[in-house]
Amino acid sequence: MSEPLVSICIPTYHRSRYLESLLTSLHDQLAGFPHTYEIVISDNASPDDTPDVIARFASSLPIRHYRQDSNIGGAANWHFVVTRAQGEFIISLGDDDALLGEQTAQAIHCLNAMPSVGAAFAPWVLYDLPSDKKLGLFYTHPDDFLVPQGDHRALLDGVLQHRIWPEIGIVRRQLLHRVMPRVPEHAFYAFVHAGEYLSRSDVVFLKDPFYVFVVRHFHGDKRAQTGTQEAMQAWDRYRGGLEYLMSRFASTLAPEERNAYLTRISSFIGERMAMAVKLRLRSRADPVDTFYLAARATALGAARGLPEPMQHLRSRAALHFLTHDAELNRDKRRLVCIGSFEDGVRRGLAQQGAGEVSFYDSLPDLQHFSDALVFVRDAKAVEGLDMEPLLAQRNVHVVREADLMAKFAC
Question: Which positions fall inside the Glycosyltransferase 2-like domain (predicted)?
């Protein structure tokens, strides 16, 4: 193999089916690729047939393959594979994604023509493989633009203005080795890496994509997607990454400028929280946690971005809490609902309640119940109820709707 200009670095673990799809795609997309290249794969001790998949492509693709003796973690595996690259330019590629050959070649050509630029970032295509449909770009900006070395203020302005996510890029190997990028815990790595690269070189943002994020590989594809999982819970790391970029020029800011940037960052984070609520609803995540996240998004001014009104999220959270809270439901065999309930609420209570679920229009004689959770819609129904010792003896707990909804105020 001649010395490569481009290194395509793929960390992988236990996804041989997706890796095989990726390598097939690379074989097709890079046919006639005008630049010399290598594919560097680090297998993080996969227990499946990943080594066999790689071996099948060894004669048709310029692959260098490493296999870890044990699983060293996703971040460490990425650190490992990019430091094994030999090309002048490094592209990190997810084992379940793809590249566009012609567009990748053009991006490399742009970098070759701009020796002061150490890293180039670009949006990526969202693609559904079974339907062969492009689903748009993850973000867009109207033109290519260059950020001069050290101008972290311009970098943060560009990120906030265009909602840029510098996750997909091409980095010069020498720059990567000097910067030694790692994945920090409290600041989103992509913002941090872009800031670190900018400290030592110019950085360019390309408007045209060269990378493909495969949303779905086949019908029924239920793989855990790192980006999706992160979007559901990483808002504080996102804030940390943006605040890191701001820290690089914060000493030059007047108080009103500082507040203006913090407001813009909060707006950005509020939008991401609203998106996280949407993803959480889609994945049927815990409604209580989803409610509190939506409340935070609302506080940051992102209520319009929520997929449902807060009242709906509030009601769903309250119902889930009533039927799933460990202490309320401890040793309970039945749920007793008292009052008039809409059909949808009745169905929800009937489906989610543990054990037997029964409904009464008015207060029954609670002395006949034991090991029961009693949910009362009309507080007047239990006014003057002085049976706490007896109810406790019989493991009966009464929850008033007003108290429950007050817990989830919005």
Answer: 7-101
